[in-house]
Amino acid sequence: MDEILDDIDRWRAVGQRVAVARVVDIEGSGPRDPGAAMAVNEEGEVAGSVSGGCVEGAVVGEALELLGGRRGPGITTFGYSDDEAFAVGLTCGGTIHLFVEELDW
Amino acid sequence: MSEAAGIYEAFRDAIRAEEPVALATIIDGPQAGAVSDVRPQAGAKLLVQPDAPTMGTLGDSDLDRVVERDALGMLDAGISEVRHYGQHGEARQMDLSVFVECHARRPHMVIFGAVDFTRALASQAKLLGYRVTVCDAREVFATRRRFPMADEVVVDWPNRLLDRIGDELGPRDAVCVLTHDHKFDVPAIVGALPTRVGYLGAMGSRTTHEKRSERLREAGVTDEQLERVMAPIGLDIGGRTPEETAVSIVAEIIAAHTGRQAPRLKDGQGRIH
User: Fold this and answer.
1) Would you call B11 an interface residue with chain A, using a CB distance cutoff of 8 Å?
2) Of the candidates B33, B81, B101, which has its C-beta nearest A1's C-beta?
3) Which residue of B113, B158, B198, B261 has the fewest CB atoms within a 10 Å radius of its CB?
4) What residues does each domain of chain B span?
5) Mean pLDDT across the stretch B169-179?
C-alpha cells in the first residue's frame, strides 16, 4: 500500500474515484506477497502493482467495471488453473487472489 | 491524526509515520447491500493499532473484538493474511473471510561490538530493512564515523542498553553479539535472554563459545537458555570476510524466522516460498 499513497491522494484531491486491488492470498509461487496493492482511477490511470506485471492489465479492467457499477466489491482470482487467467499469463505458475473494492472508506 | 479522519486517512498517516497499523477487511461473506447494513458484509473495515482505540467496524462487536486481538498478534509477527471467522467472531467457522493487512514497525537489529564485522553486518541488515543499533562500551570504536549506515550508535554497556530497550524486542528482531570478549559478550547474552527477541547469535569459534558458555553458566544461565544462543553465529557457507560472514548471519536469521533448515533449493522439492 505504501507506494500508492501519493497517487491516491493526488487523485482524490481532484475528486477522482479510486478502486484498490490488494493481493490477499497466493497459492504456489506468487510474485508479490499479501498486502501488495494497485490503485486505478476513473480514467484508468494506475499506481502500484500486484504481480510481476502479468495480471495488471486485467486488473485495470476489473477496477473500471467496479467504478462503473458493473460489478461489486469482491475477490478476483488469477491463476494457471483458470483458462482466462492463463491467457493473461501468470509467469510464475501460481494463483493469486485479489480483493477489489472502491476506496470509499 | 491531523484531519478529521476516515479510516483511509488514519491508515495512510500511520503508514507514513511508520507506526504499526493493521487494516482488517471482510473480503468474503454476505454480499454488500444485503438485507441489513449492520451485519458483517464484504468491504467492512476495522483499523487496529497497538495502544489505540479501533476505528470502524466489521459489523459485529464480538467479531471486532476477536479480530482486534488477532490483528495485534499478526502485527507482532509481521504477517498479512486471510483469517476465517463465524458471524460473531467464532473460531473454526468459515462464514467470513477477513484479510488483515499489517504494516509492522521495521524489525530491529542490535549489534554488540563495534568491530569490522559489525560494519558489514549493519550494511547487510539495512539492505533487509532493519533498524540497526550498534553498541559498544568503548567510545573510540563506537562512533558514527565508523558506522554511518547504522540508525543509532550507542556507547554503553550491553546490559544497560538492554535494560532500556529489552522490553521492545520481539520475534522479528535480532541481537548479534560480535565482540569476541567475555567482558562484553556475557552481559550482552545474559541481558538478551529474558527478552522476546527472535534471534540471538554470538560470534566466535567453537572453543571461544565453550569458554563463553562456562562463564554464562556461572552467571546463572541454564542449558536450556544456552540452546537459544546461535553460536558460532551464521550458516555454514564457508564465509571468511566480514561481508561474507554478514551474509551467512542474515541468512541464518531468515531461516530461523521461516523455520527452514537452509539446505540448497536444488536439493529439495516442493514450494520455494
Assistant:
1) yes
2) B101
3) B261
4) 7-103, 108-258
5) 95
